[in-house]
Design goal:
mainly beta; single chain; four-stranded antiparallel β-sheet; eleven-stranded antiparallel β-sheet; 17 strands
Length: 256
């Protein structure tokens, strides 16, 4: 745990030990109380910061691996295309995700750790090129907006399940992580809207052909185990040729 401070109080009827703070978590709190009575009662009170529910599976003794089960982070990212293989120019892309579960093994050095997790993400990408995405003959395609229409909006949204495999190292008070993230893509949906003659028109297209699997690589930096930033490269595309929306993405975001 490597606490910031430990306070032990002892009376004729009770011994109490309180731990404040731990390595990488200034908000960690642990209290153990032992009553001296015929019906002796022991009480443990513990809590840590949000998004980090640590359940040690082995004691963190010197020379031993420390195993933890965690709910680790919420992340928000903004993406730009590094390569556009399709016929449309991507205006912007956004993602929000949560790593639901992570199993982490911290090595005896307490500066190196390996982890594997399970995450879920929601992704959306939009284009404003005078064209809208749509489904034609069962395939993703594009078409121009109606003449004299305005307030154009065309975007593709989809979910992903991920299994990130991560290595991280501590430099002073900063944790740096590298992760390979295989993903399972979940049913993209095209949503379009525009206004014409003071009326708003909205359309959705589902059941599009897409690639089931993808891969991303992430570099993350956290200071003292709190919020951080990440850079992610996704070389795989969501759609096969000749779909007009094929992008290799670079994402920068925040870890909460």
């Amino acid at each position: 745990v490597r606490p910031d401070s430990v306070v032990i109080a002892e009376t004729d009827s009770m011994t109490q030990m309180t731990i404040f703070g731990s390595e990488g978590n200034d908000e960690y709190y642990f209290r153990y109380s032992k009553m001296y009575a015929p019906d002796a009662l022991s009480k443990v009170d513990e809590h840590a910061r949000s998004w980090n529910f640590s359940l040690p599976l082995l004691n963190a003794e010197k020379g031993r691996v420390e195993w933890e089960l965690l709910c680790t982070d919420l992340h928000l990212g903004w993406s730009v295309p590094l390569e556009e293989s399709g016929r449309t120019h991507l205006h912007h892309a956004f993602s929000i995700g949560l790593e639901l579960l992570q199993v982490r093994a911290t090595l005896p050095s307490r500066r190196d750790a390996f982890a594997m997790g399970l995450g879920i993400d929601y992704n959306t990408m939009s284009q404003h090129t005078g064209q809208m995405w749509l489904k034609r003959d069962g395939q993703l395609d594009t078409a121009p907006y109606p003449e004299a229409s305005r307030s154009h909006r065309s975007h593709i949204s989809y979910g992903t399940l991920s299994l990130p495999v991560q290595y991280r190292h501590k430099f002073g008070n900063t944790w740096v992580s590298l992760a390979a993230i295989p993903t399972l893509n979940l049913r993209p949906v095209v949503s379009n809207s525009y206004k014409l003659d003071n009326k708003e028109y909205k359309y959705k297209f589902k059941h599009l052909p897409y690639k089931d699997f993808g891969m991303s690589f992430r570099l993350g930096v956290r200071y003292k185990g709190h919020s951080g930033i990440y850079l992610q490269y996704t070389p795989t595309e969501l759609f096969d040729a000749p779909a007009p929306a094929r992008y290799q993405m670079l994402t920068i975001g925040v870890l909460l």
